[in-house]
Amino acid sequence: MRRAALRLCTLSKGLLAPSRGLAQGSQNPEKQRVFHIHEACSPIHVNHVRDKLREIVGASTNWRDHVKAMEERKLLHSFLAASQKGLPPRRMKDSYIEVLLPLGSQPELREKYLTVQNTVRFGRILEDLDSLGVLICYMHNKIHSAKMSPLSIVTALVDRIDMCKKSLSPEQDIKFSGHVSWVGKTSMEVKMHMFQLHDNEFSPVLDATFVMVARDSENKGPAFVNPLTLESPEEEEIFRQGELNKGTRVAFSSMSLLKMAPTAEERTAIHEMFLNTLDPKTVSFRSRVLPPNAVWMENSKLKSLDICHPQERNIFNRIFGGFLMRKAYELGWATACNFGGSRPFIVAVDDIMFQKPVEVGSLLFLSSQVCFTQGNYIQVRVHSEVASLQDKEHMTTNVFHFTFMSEKEVPLVFPRTYGESMLYLDGQRHFSSMSAPVTLKKDHLIEP
Prior knowledge:
Elements: E1 9-11, E2 16-18, E3 35-36, E4 44-45, H1 46-57, H2 66-73, E5 97-101, H3 110-113, H4 122-140, E6 152-163, E7 174-183, E8 187-198, E9 201-215, H5 233-254, H6 264-276, E10 294-296, E11 301-307, H7 321-340, E12 345-354, E13 363-374, E14 377-387, E15 395-405, E16 412-414, H8 418-432
Helix pairs in contact: 1-4, 4-7
């Protein structure tokens, strides 16, 4: 929703937090603070994150054992708190985790993350961020007296992902870090950061804010989470920002075009676009022609279909949210590439709401569409639906918003119907939430 495009990252004392300021082209990125190797604790290998999650919830690596594993989790109900007051407060550093993706020191890992352009696949990074966010929340709510956690923690929202002005090489180690930054009664905000090794230092690459929710041991109802205690002015500021983020999400949702009519300014803009497409030869509302260098929105679509196999399940035997994000991102990237006629680069990701879990065996329908363009920018919306093999009814599970930048100026996109006009305005709102324009530099941007 509110994301600063290509924003530089800084370090706060003891914890990592995004900077308040924007990096402009005139600034020298070498002057920013970096994260030194010798300052870090021993990180977890990225391949062990999913293993740790399975251990925490007692999930089996064998699909045939998943029913038995979920039956065993019913016994954990007694460990759930009746209220948040019965749970001990936790510090931010209690949930702090570092994870290493050793692309440089372990070259055998590179192929999974490699693009044909010899860059890192951003879709894979989304998968790693999703797993890390869940593990961080389990660390915050850890019960030392129980072998397994009675909580089922799932991703509710990807609030924003801000890209930093640093190159991302497939031949250098990457490090992720993160911690719980805000808690409600049953939900938690997680701040995560990504760095890459340059000259024996880890330099900022990415900031991400996810919102997680806690549910009971059978994932059927909400569950209370440990409160958060603040130990410094820096932590108080991080927590205050979490409160502001929550308020902004509520306000943004209340202004949704699914609930409220467009503003007067937006209505005027749509009417002007409509007038610009009327055929001057006929002077008829039904006769529409495109202005020069423009494309009808309906001609900017791409679609895909995936079968959700057990291999892509999460620890609760639903389809892994990171997998959904990767598939949506890659379709969105292909849509931007096809529309712009050149290789697009990701600028920002925001407001990914997980509305409904996806069951193993479902048919996953993804529909991607360019909904707004300006200059070199392409705003892409990806809509996700599922249908079971037995029931052909489609249900929406996610809506994804991606902002891309093309290597050259792209055509304008024009809506033809009222529904497309609402998509256009929604895309414009997401695009306008960027705090500042971005200067295209290939070595500073990330590909799929």
